[in-house]
Amino acid sequence: MFRSSMTLMDVRLCQKCCKRSLSSKQLIYEKYGHPPDVLNLVTKEVGKVGADEVRVRWMGAPINPADINQLQGVYPRKPPLPAVGGMEGFGEVEEVGSEVTTLRAGDWVLPGISNAGSWRTLGNHYERDLFKIAKDLPFDSAATLQVNPPTAYRMLKDFVNLKAGDLVVQNGANSSVGRCVIELCKLWNIRTVNIVRDRKNLDVLVRELKEIGADEVFTEEEMKKESTNRAKNAQLALNCVGGRNAMMLSTCLSNKGVMITYGGMSKKPVPTGSLIFKDIKLVGFWISQWYTNQDNKKDREAMFEELQDLIKHGKLHPPKINKLKFEDWKTAITNAMNSSGTKQLLVMQ
C-alpha cells in the first residue's frame, strides 16, 4: 500500500515537473557579425505563461534579407541582446494566460512585431504581439504571409489611387514582393512593366513572370528604349534597387507620378532629376513601420482578410521555397546569403 502510494505521488510530481520545464530550441545571437558565425542553436527552458501571454509552438519561419541585415547589425531596429532571430513565420497557440481574450489554444498566429524571434520551436509572447490567421492556409503561404504580400498590397493601395488600365513599373520583379505586385495588379486589372537582371535562361524567367500576370518583362538594357515606349506614363514606380535602375523608373513616370523605394540592393543613390522637371514624388515604405502605427489596425485586419481569401482561392501564391529542417539552419542561412529567387524556410516541427 505504501509502495503504491509513493508511485502515484512520483507520477504526479513528474507530471508537474515536466509541465513546468518545457524546453525550446532557439537560434540566438549575442553579438552582430557574419550570420553563420554569430548564430547558435541552443536549448532553453520555457517558463510559465503569464496572465497576458500566449505560448506558441512555431511551425515554420523563412529567412529574409531583413533577417540577414539584423544579424549583421545594419537593420534599423535592434532588439536587446542576446536575442532570438527571425522576424517572420507562423505558429500554433498551445496555451493562453488568464487575461488573454483574443486567442485560444489551436489558433494559428503571425508575429505582430518585427523582433518577435520566430526562429524557435516554442516561446511565450505577449498577446498584443501576435496576429491571428486562418488555420486552413497552405504551410508555405502561412509562413511567408507577414512581410511580402502586405508590402506589395500597401504600396499599391496607399500612395496612388490606381484604376483599371493604369500602369505600374517596378524593378526587382523577380523578388517575392515583385511577384506579389504582379499577381495583385493582374487581379485588379492594372498593367505592369517589370525590370529584371539579365541572366542565363532569361526566357524561362520572362515566361514564368508572364504566366503569373506580368504584361511586360525587360532587362535593364532593354528598358533604355522601352522607357519612352511601352513603359511610359506610369502612375506608380516601385524601386528596391536604386542607382541607374531607379533612374530608368523615374523616366517612366508621368508628371506628378510617385516612386516608392522599399529597398536598396545596389546601395546606390536614387536619382533626383525628375523631381524637378516632372514634379514626381519620391517616398519610402517599410512594412514594419506601418505595423507599429495603431491607426492602421482596422486596415491591417481588412488587408489580411483579403490576402488570405486570395491565397485560399489560388490567386496569390507563395514565393519559391526551399524547406530545411531547423537543425540544418547553417545551410539555410548560407543559401539565403548566396542565392536569389528561392526563399529558405526553416521547418521547426
From TrEMBL:
Chief site of localization: mitochondrion
Annotated Gene Ontology cellular component terms: mitochondrion
GO molecular function: enoyl-[acyl-carrier-protein] reductase (NADPH) activity
Keyword Lipid biosynthesis carried by entry: yes
Highest taxon listed in the record's lineage: Eukaryota
Location within or outside the cell: Mitochondrion
SMART domains: PKS_ER
Domain Enoyl reductase (ER): 34-346
UniProt-listed Enzyme Commission number(s): 1.3.1.104
Class of enzymatic activity (EC top level): oxidoreductase
GO BP annotations listed: fatty acid biosynthetic process
Keyword Cytoplasm: no
Protein name as catalogued: Enoyl-[acyl-carrier-protein] reductase, mitochondrial
Source organism per UniProt: Wuchereria bancrofti
